[in-house]
Design goal:
Strand order of the largest sheet: 1-2
Helix content: 40-55%
Strand content: 5-15%
Structural class: mainly alpha
Distance between the termini: 75 Å
Largest sheet: 2 strands, antiparallel
Number of strands: 2
Order of helices and strands: EEHHHHHHHH
Shape: elongated
Length: 197
């Protein structure tokens, strides 16, 4: 009797990955949190006549259970339940990626609409310069110009969804994409000029 294998295609590399029954079982345990009893019922765990675990069973081979039939959790699946333990301090040296401050942290808090493109370029130049310094200091990364343009684009999108202090200058143009590109070029050029001097 043959078991059907699931076939997944990854669209980026156009490769076909054949998933073995053991991989399927491992993912079921990870997703559903199967108990020992459920794994025995689904024949993932076998026992010898003397009651010890049969090391040929898929649960043992995949590293789901140990010789004593105890479930082995990978390090990545151990959960630190900080939400239910108010006495715990958050780890300052955690490996998780730090969340960026808000947009206004970089270009400043605006209280009224920006009046013209020149003023907008000045505000965004200071913001991008501060953003680059932040990324260099906190992530030790030099940001590419195309990433800076993407950041600017996000800032404009966020502004249009919030108070529309400056996005209206671009969106009212007959060709907003061209207007945005022109502003982005001016901002990046101004940042580059300031860094040279």
């Amino acid at each position: 009797m043959y078991k059907k294998l699931k076939v997944y295609k990854t669209t980026k590399s156009y490769q076909t990955n054949i998933v073995t029954p053991e991989q399927t079982m491992m993912s079921k345990v990870a997703k559903n949190g199967l108990t020992i009893e459920e794994m025995v019922e689904t024949r993932m765990i076998w026992f010898k006549k003397n009651g010890s675990i049969d090391k040929r069973c898929s649960a043992y081979k995949c590293g789901i259970v140990d010789e004593n039939c105890e479930i082995i959790l990978p390090e990545t699946e151990k959960v630190n339940d900080v939400a239910n333990d108010p006495d715990d301090e958050t780890d300052s040296d955690s490996d998780e990626e730090e969340e960026l401050p808000s947009d206004t942290h970089f270009y400043g808090v605006l209280s009224e609409k920006i009046k013209n493109i020149d003023e907008l370029v000045d505000v965004m130049t200071n913001g991008i310069k501060k953003y680059k310094e932040y990324m260099l200091e906190h992530n030790d990364t030099e940001i590419l110009p195309e990433d800076l343009v993407t950041t600017l684009d996000y800032w404009f999108q966020h502004d249009s969804e919030r108070n529309d202090y400056f996005d209206y200058l671009i969106s009212q143009e007959s060709a907003p994409a061209v207007a945005f590109d022109n502003v982005a070029v001016r901002v990046l050029q101004a940042v580059e000029d300031q860094e040279k001097s």
